[in-house]
Amino acid sequence: MAMSAMKSVVLSSRSIPLLLPLGRRSNNAPVFVSSISTDSSSVAEKLLAAVHLRPGDVMVQNEADSDLGRAVIRTAKEKGITTINILANKPGAVEQIEILKRMGGDIVVTESYTNTWYMKRLLSDLPKPSVGLNSSEGSQATAVAKLLKEGGTFLTHGKSLPEEVAYPGADRRCVRWAEFLKAKKLTAKTF
Asked: Does this entry carry the keyword Oxidoreductase (predicted)?
């Protein structure tokens, strides 16, 4: 697409849909740029306020290297909330762990690490998390829910939970999410 007249555009970082003229195509038809994404920092603020976390509380999240995950780390650090952050097992995870720790992530691990006894030892001095933020599905969602204290809040953002919990023995015995949440007395919410 050829552009004859380019203009610089500043988009608001608020959660307001925008449709702004950017320029014109060679056939003189207008080109628009739109933004319907939300500001991750304001979502993180609202999230932490909605679940009433206070300084000293502990929360766990997956997809910690996403925009929302990073915003949660920064916001939680400012408020004195301890974060346990889980990343997918993928290339570059070691570098991401270091970046998120420098940003203020208290504990940052890969998904596979959550299934080891090292994880239990790492968390032994902390109270169990009262809030879990799930932005994934499958075993990452399971990792978040397993770490929550009984009676905690399990928040899901951007994904819907599958019918069954993903865990190593799932092929032998299926566990439905509804049963798992009920057994741990977790309150499940979507935002």
From this structure: yes
Looking at beta carbons, which pairs linking 148-151 to residues 24 or more positions away fall under 8 Å?
Answer: 148/60, 148/184, 148/186, 150/184, 150/185, 150/186, 151/184, 151/185, 151/186, 151/187
Run of H or E residues at 43: helix 40-50
For residue range 56-75, list pLDDT tens digits in order. Answer: 999 999 999 999 999 999 99
Residue span of the structural domain in which 89 resides: 40-190
Pair of tokens at residue 1: 């697409």
CB atoms within 10 A of CB 110: 16
How far apart CA 157 and CA 165 sit, in angstroms, is 17
pTM passes above 0.90 = no
> CATH number for the domain including 49?
3.40.50.720
Please tell me the total count of domains within the chain.
1
